[in-house]
Amino acid sequence: MTTTSLILSIVLIGIGATLVMDLWTQLLKRLGVTTLNYAMLGRWAGHLLNGRVCHQAIGKADPVRHELAWGWILHYLIGLVFAASLITLAGQGWLLAPTLIPALLFGLCSALAPLCLMQPAMGAGFFASKTPTPLKNCLRSLATHCIFGLGLYLSALVLSLA
């Protein structure tokens, strides 16, 4: 596999998996379930550029110019990084014959990023411990990242058939 085709595969799989995750969160929203507002990710990143890593409550931090757009861009860039990580761990052979289990396991493990990095930095605590319903929030994050893992698999499968 050439470097160009590998990079293209990572981009397509990362975008595809993130899109599957976004469709899931849209379904949750229609069912009345609160999901992450990507403006808060953009706000956090904007403050990070100014040297502030942690917040008591990101929603109360000063807004950042274009935070919603930055949040969505970062959301998809993170999807690309996760896709590249899975392909690095599973090997390029996985791209030729994708299997579900590595993608699902990786999706579940990727939930550690929000649970152990993003939530504490945004004021929600490790594993959402500072929220009113930590267990519920952790399970929701695990489910969403499992869907992301399914998206990794489906995107790789479609790409392998093309």
UniProtKB/TrEMBL annotation:
Keywords: Membrane, Transmembrane, Transmembrane helix. The keyword Transmembrane helix applies. The chain crosses the membrane at residues 6-24, 68-89, 95-117, 138-161. The keyword Transmembrane applies. This is Membrane protein. The lineage of its organism: Bacteria, Pseudomonadati, Pseudomonadota, Gammaproteobacteria, Pseudomonadales.
